[in-house]
Amino acid sequence: MTAELVRGQNHPLSQARLEIRISAGTPIVASATLSDADGKARGLEWVAHPGAPDLPGLEVSRQAAADHRLAVDLDAMPEAVHRVNVLLALPTGTGGPGRFGVVAAPFVAVTGLDGAEVASYTITGLDAETAVVALELYRRQGAWKVRAVGQGYAGGLAELFTDQGLSEARQLAGTINEAVAQGLARSVQAPSQRAADGDRTRQTATPALGPDQSGPARQGTPAPASPHPSSAYPPQGGQPGHPTDPVDPSAVTQPSTPGAGSPVDYSHPGRQNSAPPPPPPTAPPAQPGQPARPVAGDATGWSMDERLYNQVWGMFEDLARSTAAYRSAVDFADSRMEKELDQVLSDPRSRIGGQGDAAREAARAKYTQLVDQARQVLDRDLAQLTAEADVVEPALPPAYARWDNPVWHAYRVPMEMPMALRLGDLRLPESELLRIPMLVRLPLERGLWIDSGRTGAGEDPLADTGALQHLAMETAVALAARLLAVYPAGEFTTHVIDPAGSGAKALAPLVQTGVLAAPPALGAAGVSDVLTRLTQRVDLVQMAVRGGAADSLPPGFDTAEQLLIVNDFPHGFDDRAVTQLRYLADEGPAVGVHLVMVADREEAVGYGPLLDPLWRSLLRLTPLPDDHLADPWVGHAWTYEPSLVPVGSQVLQQVLTQVAAARTKYE
Amino acid sequence: MTKGQAISLQKNDGGSLAAVRMGLGWQAAPRRGLFGSRTREIDLDASAVLFADKQPVDVVFFRHLVSDDGSVRHTGDNLVGGVGQGGDDEAILVDLSRVPVHIDQIVFTVNSFTGQTFQEVQNAFCRLVDETNGQELARYTLAGGGAYTAQIMAKVHRSGPGWTMTALGTPANGRTFQDLMPAILPHL
C-alpha cells in the first residue's frame, strides 16, 4: 500500500534497503546529505552528489536525468547519522529551465527492492526555487521513517548546503554543477576517480569562503527540527552488504586534507568505540494482538545495572498509575451509585410499585459494570507487570536482589559500588502477589530508622516486644550486611552501638565473621566513644571539603563510608550523645557517615518534641509488613516488607565471610 | 476537519487508535525597537480536562503534567514559543488504551497565559496527531484568529469500544483552563 504523503507528513519504513525513485519532466540533479542528531552535515564526506556518488549505504546517480533511482541501505548508515536528506536541483549553465516553477512537479517515491511503493510525494507549490529538499529519512526511536519535506531554496544548492551546516557550501555546489555539466556534455558516465580528483583540487586551491551570507529565501513550511532521541547503539563495525566503490575513497577522506576549509574533527580517533554502551536487550517482536513479552533490562541506561534500576522504577510507576486508574474508577462508580440511589429515594414516584426497586437495581448494575471493567483493565496491567517481574527478578544483581536469589550464592566482592540498593519490597493491596523491589540510590542520602515499636492495628498480636525488637535488629543486620557486601573491599566500615547488649543474638553474623571495625560498643562509655569519633570525622571531612583540601586529611584516615547501627536508643545516651547523634543524622550523609537506628519512638518520648526532627530526617522502615510508604507520583500507601534472609539459610554467613576475607587482604 | 465535524478514531482495519497527541506551536512576537531584552513573550498553554459523566475528574496542564493514572502526559511548559520552526512547542499525549474506564471525555484547550489575543500571535497553530503514525487528524490556525485568548480545541470521547474525536474550535477567554470551565460544559 502506498502512502501518498503531503508536505510535513511522515511514514514508517519497515525495510532498511530501499530505493528512492525520482521522476521529473526535465533533467535534474539528485543528491543526498547525511545529518547528525543536530541536523548538521559533518562535512563533505556526508554528501553524495554526482561528483562523489557513493556514501556508506547510499548511492546517487552521476549525472542529471529526468528519472533517478537512488539505492539506500539504512542499516549501513554510520551510527552518527540521524537523517538522510534527499535533494533535487536544477542543473545550472546547461540551458535548461531556471526554476522549478516552470517544470512539472517532481515526483518522488520510496520503494522496496521489489519495486513496491512504500510512500510517495509530489512536490507541488515550488516557484523560484532551484533546489529542494524532497524527502528526509530519519531515525526515530531506533526505527527509520520518511518525511515529505518539500523545502525549496531560491539560492540553489549553495544555499541549501549552507542551511545544512556545510561551510564549503558554495564550492560544493560548484563542484556538483561542474560534474553535472561534464556528464551532460559527454553524456557518458564520467569516471568517478576523475570527478573526485577535480573535487579535491578545487577544494585545496580555493581558500575557504565563509558560509553563504545571503539570507536564504525560504519557501514553504520548513521542516520541524527532527526530535531524535539520543539513541544508545553499539558502534557499528563494517557496513555489511554495502557496495563500496574502491576507486572513490578520496571523497570520503576529504576532511582530513589539510587546508581544505573542512570542519575540525573533534572526535578522538582511538576512542570511537568506547563511548556507546552495549545495546539494551529488546523485547522480541510481539505476536499480533498481544503485548510484547517482557525482557529484563528493557530500559534506558549506560549499564545493565542502570537499565534494571530504571526498569524497576518504571514498573513501580506503572503499578502506581494503573492502580490509581482503577481506584479512581471505583471511587467514581461509588459516588455515582450513591447519588443515583439518593435520587431514587427522594423521587416520590419510586414509592409506587416496583419502579424504585428497578431504579435501584439499575444503579447497582451500572456500578458493577464499571467496576468490572476497571478490574479487567487492572488485571490486564497486572498480568503484564507480573510477567515483567518474573523475568526481572532473577536477572537482578546482588545489590538489587532478594536474599533468596541464587545470585547471592555466586557472590564475589565487587570492584565498584552499585548504583542502588534494595531496601525491601513494596506492594499494594490490589495486587498482593506483585512485589516491586524498593531500590534507593547509593550512597544513602538519608539515615534509616527500623521501627521496633508496635505499629498499627493489623500486625501480628503474637509478636511481643522482645521478638519485635529482635526482628528489627535482624532487619538492620541484613541491611548492614547487604551494604558491606555491595561496596568494594575496604570502602565500607560498620560500627555498632548496642548499649545493653540486647542485640547480641541478631548481631552474631556480623560479629562472628569479623566484618565490623570493632566489637559492638557497650554501655554509656562505649556510646560516647563511638559518637565522638564519628562526630570528629564528620567535622574533619567537612573542614577539608570546605577548605578545598581533601588531600590534607591526617595519614591513616579511613576514607571508607561509615555506617553506624544504633540499637536500643535512647538507652545509654546522655544529652551530649543525643546531640551528637542528631548532628550525625543531619550532617553525616553528605560526608559519608550513615545512620541506621533501631528504635521504638515511644521509649524516647521523654525527650519531647526535641527529637521530632531526628525521626523526620530518617526513612522509616518496619520489621513487619506495614503500609506507611508513599510513592512519588500519586501517593498510594504501599506496604513495605523488609528483605530478610530466609530462615535456615547460610547465605549471609557465606557472603560476610568473603567480605571479611577481602577486607583482610585489602588491609 | 471543520468545526463540529466528528471523526471516529477507529482504524479501517478494525483496530482502535492507541494514542493521540495535541500539539501546539507558535512563534514569539517580534521584538520592537532596539532593546532585545524587551521581547514580547507569548506564553500559550495546552491543557486537557478529563471528564467522567460530565464531571471534571482530572486535569493535565503545566502545573500537573501527568494525570494520576499516567495515561495523559504533558511534555512540559514552554513559556516563549518556538522560532517558527513549525514543530510543536507544547504537546499533550493521550494513551487512549490506558485511560481509566470511567473517563468518557477528554477536552483539549489552548490558553494565552500572557494575555495576548490570537490576533497578536504569529504562526500559532494547534493540531491533533495520531501519535502512532504521525498523521495529522485536525489542524487549526490560531494566528489572526480573533480577539480572544483561548480556544476549546476538540474533544475525544468514547463511542462504543473506541473513541471519536469532535472538532470544537470554540473561541473563549481565559488565562487557564479553570476560566474556561463554563465554556467547556456546554460541549460535553
Describe the fold and architecture.
The complex is a heterodimer of chains A (667) and B (188). Chain A has 3 domains: 3-256, Sandwich (Lipoxygenase-1); 304-395; 442-666, Rossmann fold, CATH 3.40.50. Chain A is built from 12 helices and 22 strands. Chain A has helices spanning 156-163, 169-186, 192-205, 249-252, 304-346, 355-395, 465-486, 504-513, 523-546, 575-587, 612-617, 651-666; strands spanning 3-5, 10-12, 17-35, 47-48, 54-55, 58-59, 65-73, 83-89, 107-111, 117-122, 131-140, 143-153, 218-219, 420-428, 431-441, 448-451, 492-497, 561-569, 593-599, 619-621, 626-630, 637-642. Chain A starts with a strand and ends with a helix. Chain B contains 1 helix and 11 strands, in the order E-E-E-E-E-E-E-E-E-E-E-H. By secondary structure, chain B is mainly beta. In chain B, the strands form 2 sheets. A 6-stranded antiparallel sheet of chain B has the order 1-11-10-7-3-4, covered by helices on one side. In chain B, strands 5-6-2-8-9 form a 5-stranded antiparallel sheet, with no helix packed on it. The interface between A and B is medium-sized, with 31 and 23 residues.
Q: Which helices and strands, and how do they pair?
A:
The complex is a heterodimer of chains A (667) and B (188).
Chain A: E1 3-5, E2 10-12, E3 17-35, E4 47-48, E5 54-55, E6 58-59, E7 65-73, E8 83-89, E9 107-111, E10 117-122, E11 131-140, E12 143-153, H1 156-163, H2 169-186, H3 192-205, E13 218-219, H4 249-252, H5 304-346, H6 355-395, E14 420-428, E15 431-441, E16 448-451, H7 465-486, E17 492-497, H8 504-513, H9 523-546, E18 561-569, H10 575-587, E19 593-599, H11 612-617, E20 619-621, E21 626-630, E22 637-642, H12 651-666
Parallel strand pairs in A: 1-10, 16-19, 16-20, 17-18, 18-19
Antiparallel strand pairs in A: 2-12, 3-4, 3-7, 3-8, 3-9, 5-6, 6-7, 8-11, 9-10, 11-12, 12-13, 14-15, 14-22, 21-22
Helix pairs in contact in A: 1-2, 2-3, 5-6, 7-8, 7-12, 9-10
Chain B: E1 6-8, E2 19-27, E3 44-52, E4 55-60, E5 72-74, E6 90-95, E7 105-112, E8 122-130, E9 135-141, E10 150-159, E11 162-172, H1 177-184
Antiparallel strand pairs in B: 1-11, 2-6, 2-8, 3-4, 3-7, 5-6, 7-10, 8-9, 10-11
